[in-house]
Amino acid sequence: MKEILCNLHIHSTYSDGSGTYSSIASAALQANVDVIILTDHNVWVKGYEGYVQQNGQKVLALTGEEVHNQDREPQKNHLLVFGAESEVATYASDPQQLINEVARRGGLAFLAHPDEMDLPIVHEDDISWVDWQVKGFTGFELWNQLSELKTVSRTLPQLLTNVFFPEKMSVGPNPATLARWDQYLAAGQHLNAVGGVDAHALHFNLGPLKKIIFPYEFHFSSITNHLLLTEELNGNLEHDKKLIYTALRTGASFVAYDLPAPSRGFSFTISNDEAIASLGESLALSRGATVQVSLPAAAELALIRDGKTIYQSTAMDHLAYPITEPGAYRVEAHLDFQGQRRGWIFSNPIYVMKGKNGGNQ
Asked: Is the CB of residue 39 less than 8 Å from the CB of residue 7?
């Protein structure tokens, strides 16, 4: 497997971001990101996809879309769309019809910031997902950095601290979204998670105080998606897009907060006597089925099955753990950074199915 870094949910001057495609790509190059997926509001920007090279480095810029019904009041139900390859905002008034159309076009649909709060200090509304009857979506935006700002900034001093010292802000995904994801997994749904920075690089002005919330460079060094590709990127746009979207479609990825410590090299597999499964994959339960986890550094580690923690340790970098029950298994890792416990790694699940005879083999 080839591991690459992908940053997504990014806004440019084509909607309400402050950066051009060129300046955003330059910021990604500074952060050593391999792929960025821009998702402007209700506009699919054509003609900008491709590799951007600078000083011997390159980043692949892809174009998706964040779709929502602009006529709905209050605003809700934002959908991140990747790989549809054409405009789908005309379907925004009906979330299920929108999801169906994205699927028909071979695209991916992730519910954006499913659970968030308003931020009345700066007149920002709660734009959670509310239509929970929908089906057929690819997964959830598990961790959204701009939504987290709204959650942890309930007073003006908190907001100013988080704006001027953003490295002190992020602690992890919204617990409600984590719990919601686990409920779907426990019910047998195969749904993937991505992490989104929701980058706008907004210009904040309060009297003499002026600040960018948050610079693209900061976003690209924080919440990332580590994709596990079946082969190397080779520079061909269509070939590489297919690899990237396949990883996002199948859940061959994990969400990481790379600011406290690099997460590259994290590994999570489950093996039995006949097969080995990695992120997003399935295997049948049999005797000898064992979870193997390797972390790049010692951290608090939790193994979770169908939303229930079945193993937890305060400081370790390797785990070998036998399992005897089917279910959706995922891994979380936390570590301390600047005096606070923070989420570090959140894996997509590995699905362990009942054995051939309906139980353990």
From this structure: no
- Measured CA to CA in angstroms, residue 131 lies from 14, 177, 195 at distances of 27, 14, 21
**Entry pTM:** 0.95
**268 contacts: CB under 8 Å, gap ≥ 6:** 254, 278, 279, 291, 292, 293, 294, 331, 347, 350
Q: Which residues contact 158 (CB under 8 A, 6 or more apart)?
A: 152
Supply the DSSP symbol for 4. E
The strand pair at 139-144 and 108-111 is best described as parallel
- Residue 126 reports pLDDT greater than 90: yes
Non-local CB neighbours of 330 within 8 Å, separated by 6+ positions: 185, 304, 346, 347, 348, 349, 350
* Contact between 69 and 131 (Cβ < 8 Å): no
DSSP, res 342 = E
Percent of the chain clearing pLDDT 90 (strictly above): 86
| pLDDT for 205 beyond 90 | no
Residues 293 and 291: their CA atoms lie apart, in Å, by 7
Question: How much of the chain exceeds pLDDT 70, in percent?
Answer: 98
